[in-house]
Amino acid sequence: MPSSTTVPDVESSVLAVVDTLCAELAGGASRRATLDDSLDRDLGISSLERVELLLRLEQTLGVRLPDSVMAEAATPRELVRAILAAGPARAPAPRNFREAASPATFIPATARTLIDALRGHADHTPDRVHIYLHNDDGSETGVTYGELLRAATAAARGLRRLGVNHGDRVALMLRTERGFFDAFFGTLLAGAVPVPLYPPVRADDLVAYTRRQQTILRNAGARVLVTFAEVERLTGLMRSQVPSLEAIATPNGLARDSDQADAADPRLRAEEGALIQYTSGSTGDPKGVLLSHANLLANIRAIGDAIRVRPDDVVVSWLPLYHDMGLIGAWLGSLYFGLPVALMSPLAFLSRPARWLTTIAAQSGTISPAPNFAFDVCVRKIRDEEIQGLDLRRWRLALNGSEAVSPETIGRFTQRFEPYGFRAEAMCPVYGLAESSVGLSASPIERLPRVDRIAREPFERLRQVRAAAPDGPRSLAFVSCGHPLPGHDIRIVDASGRPLGERAEGHIEFRGPSVTHGYFNNPEATRAVMHDDWMDSGDLGYWADGELFVTGREKDLIIQAGRNISPQEVEAIAAEVAGVRKGCVAAFGVRDSSRGTERFVVVAETRERDQARRDALQRAVRDRIVDGVGAPPDIVVIAEPRTVLKTPSGKIRRRAMRDAYVAGTLGARESAILQSARLVAADLQARSERGVSRLGRGIFTAWIAGVVLISAPLLWMYMAPRSPGRLANRAAKRWSRFVLAACGVRPRVTGLENLSGVRTGILVANHASYIDAIVMMAAIPAEFHFIAKRALTRYPLIGTVIKKAEHLTIEKARMIERLAGADTLASRLRQGDLLMVFPEGTFAQSPGLLPFRLGAFRAAVDAGRPVVPIAIRGTRQVLPDGTWLFRRAPIVVTIGAPIYPQAQGWPEMVRLRDRSVDEIARSSGEPATR
Hints:
The protein has 930 residues and is of the alpha/beta class. The protein has 4 domains: 7-88, Orthogonal Bundle (Non-ribosomal Peptide Synthetase Peptidyl Carrier Protein, Chain A), CATH 1.10.1200; 118-442, ANL, N-terminal domain (Rossmann fold, 3-Layer(aba) Sandwich), CATH 3.40.50.12780; 558-663, GMP Synthetase, Chain A, domain 3; 694-924, no CATH class.
């Protein structure tokens, strides 16, 4: 920009560009913009349309704007400020690192965890650059395997200093920046589980953003949140509403504070949690998909086999790192196979879509994934002058997934970029979901995408898949997502779970080594989707010639008078109407009890302000839908920009739209100031409620302490002079029942009939709180003997109870050896004793079963005695680890059916343990870790 240019000149130029764009978007004249108009609310310029606006401003004024302007600038005045601060329009050419990096020579084939994979590369090729991180200014930062391991180790030490322990969750609210990689592996090295979250972008969405993140943080029980400095104040407002959150840190802060902390020593196993991915929440509250190291490595290896990863492959990605396709598919997959990966932020793509393709060309990229919409953006927003000399011949795999793949998009993208070397065979539709790590099926490589055209009428009315006549009107087209990944299975079933044959639409279910064991801290949601060892995807599809075709989401289907209508197709048809904003249409059904069916509702955004034109637009949308699908919508709502609700990855939140429509809140917006005030008020309210709750817990705890202090000495005085035996055991059980009853936390016991025929055997229960032993003595009427740590005998009352009731004691230092041998336990079982053990050995603050030790199961096998699984539910809520403040909560003890040994040896021990773990996990509501 010439130095003689004045501020009024820039203001005038910006407003002229904005006015021209708004007139084009509105299809005619529109009101003139002012410097303080909101780009979103007043002018209707959405994120994708900002791409066009920024490109025009740069071209008109000869500047290059930072990528952050796309997300942060809210008014033309803020655009003016950014332009005045910007440098000249020079974009440094990205360096080609194919020549700098030799083909990968090492793959950690024996790795059992992600840490093993990183350490393997750091040991073999510490100076090999793994990540090329593109910065806002066009430069790039290289990160070697050795540097990543050292920085992650420092971050792990910093997390340990903040109190992070093995199994804790650490939330990562970070952008695509160097600190993300360090914090992710630092969390793993600290023995904790990372929980990636999408970072805040816009100030006027604060309330919705914080509500969603608080839900996730509470469900995850996150102990530490790692974020960037600019949002520390915002995240601070969350702390009062997330009880588990103890600290907020930045990546730099972790590294700075790491020197004074203990070194990380994770001792991780393949089955332990490596990541919790939270679903988009488009159909309800977000659910945390818990994935183990074994899940992730199995998926990465299977994907590598399916797409035939080569040593000289180069990966390019702009996908966000909080998204499974970007995190696992692009980054962690590249790390495992030793491939260089060029990463840029999503804003880098959205602000300049051409940058994605020019980076692929400049870096000789061979693999680059993206959702379907990104390919359409490239067709619509990239100008020929931006890609002169572009060479896409090396791009061998354009992985198209994460959302429904459109045959029209494939055709448009291929036609537009074939002159630049893009091969039609490079387009590779794939299918996956977070519950299967990331990938589940992939099209055969080096083959043209397969499109299946079917007859509309039998499909929508009867869900029958019949080939469409060549000249048949209004056919439907679906794109093949190929075959299941190696080692994985997919089946199509009907509503009763019966497998269907070819060309019959049904529910897509899957299984395999990549599949999660369940949703974190949400057993009800897990049970709803697990059918034996198959998991329900929530998607519909059919097989044709052994290939999978996905037809849509089950819960999104609109059912109108017995006809099933795909909302995705309706939205695509409505978006083609001139005046309707592309990608800003939502179709959904609303239950109408008076009609016994659903009302078919379509919400379409427009910038048009004239009411007569809006009425005409409404008629045009209705007519186009009738022509396209043969069914008229009951209601067409022509709405203001930013009415259609979307997930962070851009998917339409149809359930949220339905709820907002029913509640009459479609399009409701608040100013950023008002939203901030509401957040502060919510923070104060939460602090007040927590204070009242803490006071109530304090009073409750004082009452419990009084009951124990009065009754415990009486118990000791009764037991101390007596000989060991049944009288002492019965006295301890009566005291336990009295204390729990007096404190109002008497347990409810179910399954007592399962103990009626068991005279000798081992009772195994989960361990969640200090009060578990008292609960078991009160709940189990049969006489049994605990297996306790010998160190407990040093405590006056507990020691007296242990000795007088003849409970078994074991030296803690030799516990593993003694339980492994199990001679004493087996001997007592042969003598006819009934024993009680907590096979976890200890408990933690966070929900979830710790690994069960095998000693008790070995004793049961050796003695030929049954194991009785007992699930304790509620004690963690009454008295969780880390506090002595009690709270009221119901306690339920569920006694399972006895499990009898059927053989001898190690496999039988493992069978008894796994059966017990499954039964206890199901009844206790706590996820299992074996």
